[in-house]
Specification:
The complex is a heterotrimer of chains A (339), B (282) and C (320). In chain A, 41% of the residues lie in helices and 19% in strands. Chain A is built from 13 helices and 12 strands. Chain B has helices at 3-43, 46-50, 64-94, 99-113, 116-128, 136-161, 164-172, 177-205, 209-212, 232-240, 245-281. In chain B, helix 3 (64-94) packs parallel to helix 6 and helix 3 (64-94) packs across helix 10 (232-240). With 282 residues, chain B is mainly alpha-helical. Chain C has one domain (34-54, 66-308): MetI-like (MetI-like fold, Orthogonal Bundle), CATH 1.10.3720. In chain C, 72% of the residues lie in helices and 1% in strands. In chain C, helix 9 packs antiparallel against helix 10. Chain C is flat and about 65 Å long. Classes of the chains: A alpha/beta (339), B mainly alpha (282), C mainly alpha (320). Chains in contact: A-B, A-C, B-C. Chains B and C meet through helix 1, helix 3, helix 4, helix 5 and helix 6 of B and helix 2, helix 4, helix 5, helix 6 and helix 8 of C.
């Protein structure tokens, strides 16, 4: 009996060892902005290729950039494109690959009010600069006639760590408010004049939904999945646009035509009547000459899948698929990776 | 009120205050345990123990990989820390008067007091960066570093409690120093040492900060030691600060499992102590 | 002198001493490497900012201006607040268990207080987010507005903030302070109390005499709790609001040294940022080292005074 148990155990161990030995694990880290769609993609890809496990940790775009630069992860993910300085600091040339389009929305939790508020970039900048302090401020009432807003203090919520979502948000606000640009600046990690820090899109959503009077900025899907109210934002053409697939795609339309070779482009405050002004691409960072060729090949295969079949999962999660011209450019760029 | 009555009254007030402080301390304890039990039990089901995490926003899924991960990490940590710690403890008790021993003792007590986040930063620099890899081994290293001083000091104190006559008797019978210590002195202190190790295990099972930059996390099930690995503590943290109600429920369930592991280690410690003491009494 | 010492060492060295000594040396090596690495990797920041690092309020990764004042402030404020809340309770418990309670209750009470120490910090944090923070928020809303004008109570009702952090830390350090205080009280010679009773003292007065006698050790116990509070990371970062600002308000979100390390370490993209963070880690290391050493010294002296060995409950001593 004992011998039988031992032999069964050793067979099980050996077979699991061989199965484990064949599994390829690729580690990546970065943005929380696309985390919902990435986790869906990696799960689906794992179903198609059971021996490929792509482990992605959403630690923020700043973390993604830093860890991929230190090469402790194979790929990074960010919604704030790397600066020239950061690219120079990397041990090899890093390439940006756009994956999806997303929107950053202003979410709020106003006691007694569950409707949709209209915001302008100027108003959002003033709130985040601390100039507008209460929900019943005339600046808000002016845009939202008829809305019954209480005299509650506005609690500003931002990201506590380096974030591409922050980058998109401050990029937009700096374009529409020069004083914001001067005081805060554009980066993944800024010196906020005021407010509470939440960790990740998840943390900000959590804080806003639990704090009456709070305002924050999160990727659209976080607002949708957690049923948090979010407002419309006035775009460059003067219309108040709600974030959606159509409005985000409209924002990317212009950029698709003039895409730079390294894909680093900002589409905030895009021209066009239906464009949502706080839209952005999000990128995956891969080394052009990866050390581990097997992982590199798998990752390129994954990217090709993501840019083609993967795009059909976008709509359900509130992300806009890439314009076809961008997909074509992306596929060509993937060919540049030395395998 | 005359003097004596006033002093008596004050005395009773003081006694009341002391009793009250006991209640004040026990109330949060009861509160916390109540929440962990009630919220955790609600979310605990078989799927929790057998499923992996689902994609973000999809309900269901479990923490199977995190539970296994925690067990692997504390296993690695103790494999590293127990031999090192016991040997250190032996050295400290055998050569207790020397200056080097005082230095070692100081080092152990220092390490014991270092905040676990600093240990995490250290382990990142030593076990992650040079290898360019987050791994279960790095996590085990960080946890092991935290365990060593506890095991060392416990071993030292227990060995010092063993009557000198045992060691001297063994030496008188011609045993080498090593033999005397390892076959006579150490076994008699074993119950206490086992208790110390289990209590150290209980403590590191609950650590989060040192794992953040070493074991990282992994949404897949893995037993590979050179890859990132999920752990109950990091998983509970990630879920707790998220906005998803389903993840919050799982976080409570994870907390319940964690508290159970810690409780189990403590109970095992006491059981082992009593068993071994009985064995030695024979 | 040295030659004879080396000779003596060479003569008494044997396999056993060498074998176990290697491990002991390894332990010292780990601690030395820890200190060294912390020092080496904060040099850039040390050189650039010098002492100004500790008194500058701005923490601006974009502009490369780093000042750790908000974190020191937050750490000290939360730890001292925790001390103020926890010390009376901890000493009360220690006195109750060692002097006042019936013998049957002693073991169960000791077990229960040590249970508090065994709960992992992340579970405290979880409870903090979902139970304590809403409670503090409700407390804030219920505070009369006259009181809310004072700087101590100002700020919007977030729930997360200094008070939540202080309360959680207090709960976490009670078991450490109380178990050491209990040990210290045990070491007070019975003669002290008996003398007090013989002179007609009430219980309070006798206990006061014992406490006075043990004051060195009690201070040591309090400092131990303080050292523990200084280094606590997870429970604090989940309830303190993570906002680098210096504020007197109990309700304002603030930041501690340990929390900023946990949140920003993985993304410190440029060397100066990383060095600034590690300098904070170095400071945390030094300050906990100092506090813990002082605490152990005081407890040891107490042991010497009481002529009994007072041992720290090493396995229960946790500094998560």
């Amino acid at each position: 009996m004992k011998r039988a148990l031992i032999s069964i155990a050793s067979v099980a161990l050996l077979s699991s060892a061989t199965l484990v030995a064949q599994t390829m694990q690729i580690n990546g880290a970065g943005a929380t902005f696309p985390y919902p769609i990435y986790s869906k993609w990696f799960a689906e890809y794992n179903k198609l290729h059971p021996n490929v496990q792509i482990n992605y940790q959403s630690i923020g775009s700043g973390g993604g950039i830093q860890q991929v630069t230190s090469q402790t992860v194979f790929f990074g993910a960010t919604d704030g494109p790397m600066t020239d300085e950061q690219l120079k600091a990397a041990p090899g040339p890093l390439m940006h690959f756009p994956t999806v389009l997303g929107a950053v929305v202003p979410v709020y939790n106003i006691p007694g009010f569950s409707g949709e508020l209209k915001f302008t970039g100027r108003l959002l900048a003033d709130i985040y600069l601390g100039k507008v302090k209460k929900w019943n401020d005339p600046a808000i009432a002016q845009l939202n006639a008829g809305a019954k807003l209480p005299a509650t203090d506005i609690t500003v919520v931002h990201r506590s760590e380096g974030s591409g979502t922050t980058y998109i948000w401050v990029d937009y606000l700096s374009k529409v408010a020069p004083d914001f640009k001067q005081r805060v600046g554009v980066s993944t990690s800024v010196n906020w004049p005021l407010g509470v820090g939440g960790k990740g899109n998840e943390g900000v959503s959590g804080l806003v939904s639990q704090t009456p009077g709070a305002i924050g900025y999160v990727e659209l899907i976080y607002a949708l999945q957690n049923k948090i109210s979010f407002g419309t934002v006035q775009n460059a053409a003067g219309d108040f646009v709600r974030a959606s697939l159509e409005s985000v795609t409209a924002a990317a339309a212009g950029a698709a035509a003039n895409m730079p070779a390294d894909f680093r482009v900002s589409i905030t405050n895009a021209p066009g009547a239906k464009a949502y002004p706080i839209s952005s691409f999000t990128w995956i960072l891969l080394y052009q000459d990866p050390k581990d060729k097997a992982q590199g090949k798998t990752m390129v295969d994954f990217m090709k899948w993501a840019l083609s079949d993967g795009q059909k999962y976008c709509a359900a999660l509130g992300y806009a698929p890439l314009p076809p011209s961008v997909v074509k450019l992306g596929m060509t760029a993937l060919g540049k990776i030395k395998l | 009120m005359n003097g004596i009555a006033r002093r008596q009254a004050l005395s009773w007030l003081f006694v009341g205050f002391c009793g009250l402080s006991v209640l004040v301390a026990l109330v949060p304890l009861a509160f916390i345990l109540f929440f962990v039990l009630s919220q955790g039990l609600q979310a605990l089901n078989l799927g929790f123990f057998t499923h992996m995490p689902t994609p973000v926003g999809e309900p269901g899924g479990g923490m199977a990989n995190a539970i296994v991960g925690t067990l692997i990490l504390i296993g690695l940590g103790s494999m590293f820390a127990v031999p090192v710690g016991i040997m250190c403890g032996v050295y400290l008790s055998e050569y207790a008067g020397t200056r080097f021993a005082s230095l070692v003792r100081f080092a152990a007590d220092t390490l014991n007091g270092v905040p676990s986040i600093v240990i995490g930063v250290f382990a990142y620099g030593v076990a992650v960066l040079p290898f360019r890899q987050f791994s279960a081994l790095a996590g085990g290293f960080a946890l092991g570093v935290m365990m060593i001083p506890i095991v060392a000091r416990t071993t030292e104190e227990l060995l010092l409690l063993v009557p000198a006559t045992m060691r001297e008797g063994a030496l008188a019978l011609g045993a080498t120093h090593a033999r005397a210590v390892f076959t006579v002195v150490l076994p008699s202190a074993l119950p206490g040492i086992v208790t110390g190790v289990m209590l150290a295990l209980a403590r590191i099972a609950g650590e989060t900060a040192p794992l953040l930059f070493t074991a990282f996390s992994n949404r897949f099930f893995t037993t590979k030691l050179n890859q990132p690995i999920a752990s109950l503590t990091v998983q509970v943290y990630t879920y707790a600060i998220s906005p998803y109600a389903d993840w919050h429920r799982q976080a409570w369930a994870g907390a319940l499992v964690l508290v159970s592991i810690v409780a189990l280690c403590s109970v095992l410690a006491r059981v082992a102590t009593r068993r071994l003491e009985r064995m030695h009494a024979r | 002198m040295l030659k004879s010492r080396i000779l003596h060492r060479a003569q008494t060295m044997d396999g056993f001493r060498l074998g176990t000594g290697v491990f002991a040396f390894f332990l010292v090596l780990i601690v030395a490497t820890l200190g060294w690495e912390l020092w080496r990797q904060s040099l850039l920041s040390l050189q650039k900012f010098g002492f100004g690092f500790w008194v500058t309020e701005t923490w601006d990764p974009v502009a490369g201006r780093f000042g750790a004042l908000p974190f020191i402030w937050g750490t000290l404020y939360s730890s001292i607040l925790a001390l103020l809340l926890a010390t009376p309770v901890a000493i009360g418990i220690a006195v109750f268990i060692s002097e006042l309670c019936p013998a049957r209750l002693k073991q169960p009470l000791i077990f229960l207080t040590e249970l508090l120490a065994a709960i992992p910090s992340i579970v405290y944090g979880l409870w903090g987010i979902f139970v304590l923070v809403p409670a503090v928020r409700a407390l804030q809303v219920a505070t009369p507005s006259a009181l809310r004008q004072l700087p101590l109570f100002s700020g919007p009702p977030l729930g997360v903030g200094m008070l939540s952090a202080g309360v959680i830390l207090a709960i976490m350090i009670v078991p450490f302070t109380s178990s050491v205080a209990r040990e210290v009280l045990k070491s007070v010679p019975a003669a002290q109390r008996e003398a007090a009773y013989a002179l007609g003292a009430t219980r309070l007065e006798a206990i006061r005499a014992a406490l006075f006698y043990a004051r060195t050790g009690i201070v040591g116990a309090v400092m131990l709790g303080f050292g523990r509070a200084l280094g606590e990371t997870m429970a604090v970062t989940m309830v303190i609001g993570n906002s680098p600002q210096v504020s007197w308000s109990l309700f304002a979100p603030q930041y501690t040294m340990a929390a900023v390390l946990a949140n920003e370490f993985t993304e410190a993209a440029n060397p100066l940022y990383l060095n600034a963070l590690i300098e904070i880690g170095l400071f945390l290391f030094i300050i906990t080292l100092a506090v813990n050493s002082l605490s152990r010294l005081l407890i040891w002296r107490m042991g010497r005074i009481g002529k009994e060995v007072v041992t720290l409950p090493a396995p229960a001593e946790a500094a998560a």
